[in-house]
Amino acid sequence: MLKTGILPDADIAALFSEGALKTERPLDDNQIQPASLDLRLGNIAYRVRASFLPGPRHLVADKLERLKLHEFSLNAGAVLETGCVYIVPLMESLELPADISASANPKSSTGRLDIFTRVMTDCGQEFDKIPAGYKGPLYLEVSPRTFPIVVRPGSRLSQVRFRRGNSILSEDDLARLHESETLVASETPNISGGGIALSIDLNGGEGGLVGYRAKHHSGVVDVDRKAGYDVRDFWEPLYDYGKGELVLDPDEFYILVSREAVHVPPGYAAEMTPFDPLVGEFRVHYAGFFDPGFGHSAAGGTGSRAVLEVRSHEVPFILEHGQIVGRLIYERMSRLPQNLYGSGLKSNYQGQALKLSKHFR
User: Fold this and answer.
1) DSSP 8-state code for residue 110
2) What phi and psi values does residue 230 have, to the nearest 5 degrees?
3) Rounded CA gap, 55 and 53, in Å?
């Protein structure tokens, strides 16, 4: 066991037994993932005027009293509308030891529905960052961007990772690990900025399909309903016509896929980060966590593509095949997890190519 690194599933379970993690009701099955914990919505939601951070001297609850437009129960299921900002207290709360910090990210299915989520803490000055030793409640900011959604207590939109110290691999370490484990399916991987670059695939797979563009004015999506919706009611397929490029229109949401297949060995976890905000007017990948075993052959994968959630900013932007769009940062696990992604966990995206969220059939 290493002194630093991402905490695996057994250590996350131990945090509950030690009182460092608390919850309002018993854990759900598979809520603890190989290197993360799914966070659950509580019973009440607040619609607020605007997104906010509490700042170093304020509680989230105090800011909510000033900024909320109204509060409502989620117990019977509630619709969260597009273009609105909601704050939902989570069922889980923390009393972290002084040597454990945490970071949060949307779940893969959340990102693929274009639901913008960020975790907040009392006295927080950053979203999705939980300082070592934090003691207090957790809140989730939720803002559906494309589809209105139905949520209820226990809906899982976000996830959190726990770590001791700094275990991010250096460029030299990454190069050595790639040499032995083939982290991305590329003979000459682009290793820079502390990560491995991923590029976009616009040549298309079967039938020339390169991605999907979300339709406007669709129905609502129940986030807890699996395979419940027809793709054609919510998505427009996009095909390659030999140009190897795609024009991103402002205010449109796209599901695309990486050119490279990704592999995360069992002793490591990865996270997708923006490649460089100066390379283009678009945002890629809301949901950035890759668990140990993602694309790993022993866990049912042979390398898995990274599905990319893409939204242009203020102006149209042309993406070209092979253009670098993101960077994978690898971290060491403090020890091997008991379960790997895709190995007996019914993981939704093991061995994936281009794939929409689990909600569509």
Assistant:
1) H
2) -80, 130
3) 6
End-to-end CA distance of the chain: 42
Catalytic residue among 92, 141, 260, 331: 141
Clarify whether residues 182 and 311 are in a common domain: yes
Domain span at residue 138? Answer: 5-164
CB 261 within 8 A of CB 281: no
Tens of pLDDT, residues 200-236: 999 987 788 999 999 998 999 999 999 999 999 999 9
What span, in angstroms and rounded, lies between the C-alpha atoms of 309 and 195?
19
| Count of domains observed in the chain | 2
Q: Is residue 141 among the annotated active site residues?
A: yes
What is the distance between the alpha carbons of residues 318 and 280, in angstroms, rounded to a whole number?
9
Is residue 41 within 8 Å of 140, Cβ to Cβ? yes
Q: Is 23 exposed, middle or buried (CB count within 10 Å of its CB: 0-12, 13-18, 19+)?
A: middle
Domain match, 207 and 119 both: no
CA-closest candidate to residue 329, choices 279, 264, 284, 278: 264
pTM: 0.93
